[in-house]
Amino acid sequence: MNKRALLIDADLLDNGTRHPNLALMKISGYLKKKGYEVKLLTDYNNLSHSDYDEIYISKVFTFTNYPPILDSIPDEKKQKGGTGFFPDGNSEDLKDEIEHHMPDYNLYDEYIDIKTKSGRSKKYFSDYLDYSIGFTTRGCFRKCPFCVNKKYDKVIRHSPVSEFLDPDRKRIYLWDDNILAYEKWYEIFDELNQTGKPFQFRQGLDIRLLTKEKAKVLANSKYWGDIIFAFDNIDEKDHIIRKLELWKKYSDRQTKFFLLTGYYRQDEKDIEETFERIKILMHYQCLPYIMRHENYLNSEFRSLYIQLARWCNQPNIFKKMSFRQFCEANQKYHEKAKNNKKTLCSSYDVMVKFEEAFPSIAKKYFDIRYGSGGEL
Fold first, then answer.
1. What string of DSSP letters covers 238-283?
2. Which pLDDT band, with edges at 50, 70 and 90, does 339 fall under?
3. Closest alpha carbon to 249 in 203, 214, 197
4. Residue 342: what pLDDT?
5. Where do the domains of the chain lie, and which CATH numbers do they carry?
């Protein structure tokens, strides 16, 4: 009788996630090749660990919750992994024969079938169905304090694209930590372009490492979707601007930047510095994507962080409205929906209160608009 293995994607079952768990897909592919019967848990109802010989539990996010029954599973039967369990990034690596195994791209089929039959659009599961997924390199030398990736001192080659490429899938996405820091980065782009498939790096690319050669290759590659960089610290403003000038010489495609907020501080200065980064990106017709570190919850301005994310992270709104216009539009909708002009919606309320407390910051930033140019 074949051994039975149960795989549990804790993030999927708690919060839902748009991304399949690559480690679990590799484990599944490896175990199936060894003759195991493998099942992905689709819900926690009637879970009985006695039905399985081995249980693998993974979670990426520290805030993911799971039921106590998982802790009651004997340690000799279960293995836990992922940054959700080991936020310092020091979890045990997968064995080489698993790490370099072709992912099981059918692992989530049953779950997707259940969800689509209950009304979820199949398009929602594009990342599960349309992409080959992997790492071509691992590591980053930056060791940013907010990042879990501190295992490596440099970027190293991890695998060829062929190791995880499914010819039947339309596109490729990659989880490389810092591809532009790899000494032979051009070899990776050659491999990717030779597949003929559109590809995308899902981590924010390190624009600080951009050169003329890298800009040319990136701009002329078969890239899918927005080019995504990161702009986490206002202290790097001048360097980022120089690299943006370089990038714009070679590309006119839509470019997006992850903006970390609420990490270094959670006061009005952080709000001001966030707006300054937004202004710089507006000047170069780039899109900001607000990434709120959980520290923002400690701020008296936490509601403002939320509204900044709502404004910036919806490109169709961000391109049309200043922050003030966004808040005013929300207030008009609130008045119409509630048939009440006496109360304020959350966005308009926080805008008014912040402007009263810090009028100079509001005057400088609340009315700036995408595409309006202006001096930096």
1. HHHHHHHHHHHHH--S-EEEEEEESSS--SHHHHHHHHHHHHHHHH
2. confident
3. 214
4. 82
5. 1-129 (3.40.50)
